[in-house]
Write a structure and sequence with these properties.
Elements: H1 8-11, H2 21-35, H3 48-77, H4 79-86, H5 92-104
C-alpha cells in the first residue's frame, strides 16, 4: 500500500493561502519611500580641499605608482640571480644573463632562469 500524499494545508493548518491583498501591501507601502529624494555626495571633500586632494592623487598615480611598479618588476626579475649567488650556483653568470634578458623581453625568460 502506498501512502497518500497530504496537501500542505492538511499537514500544516497555518500554511493556508493568504488573501490576495496581502501580497501587494508591502510593495505598496515601500513604493512612496522609494520615491523620496535622497541626498548623495560624490566626495567627503568640498571646494579647495577637493581640488588639493585631486592634485595629490594625480601626482601619486602619474609619478609614484609607475616608479614603484618598475622597482617591484625589477626586484622580482633579479630574484633568481640573487638566489643563485647565495647558493653559489655553478651557472650563476648564465642565470644573471637570463635575468637581464628577461627584463628586456618582458619576463618571458624569467621561468627559465
Amino acid at each position: 500500500m502506498t501512502p497518500v500524499p497530504m496537501k500542505s494545508h492538511e499537514q500544516f493548518p497555518s500554511a493556508r493561502k493568504r488573501p490576495a491583498f496581502t501580497r501587494w501591501v508591502p510593495g505598496a507601502l515601500l513604493a512612496p519611500l522609494m520615491c523620496l529624494p535622497a541626498s548623495a555626495r560624490a566626495s567627503m571633500f568640498q571646494g579647495e580641499t577637493l581640488d588639493k586632494v585631486a592634485d595629490v592623487l594625480a601626482w601619486v598615480v602619474l609619478v609614484i605608482a609607475p616608479i614603484v611598479g618598475i622597482a617591484v618588476f625589477w626586484l622580482v626579475h633579479i630574484l633568481p640571480e640573487k638566489i643563485a649567488e647565495r647558493k653559489q650556483h655553478p651557472q650563476a653568470k648564465a642565470i644573471q644573463c637570463l635575468c637581464l634578458l628577461s627584463l628586456v623581453y618582458g619576463g618571458l625568460l624569467w621561468p627559465i632562469a
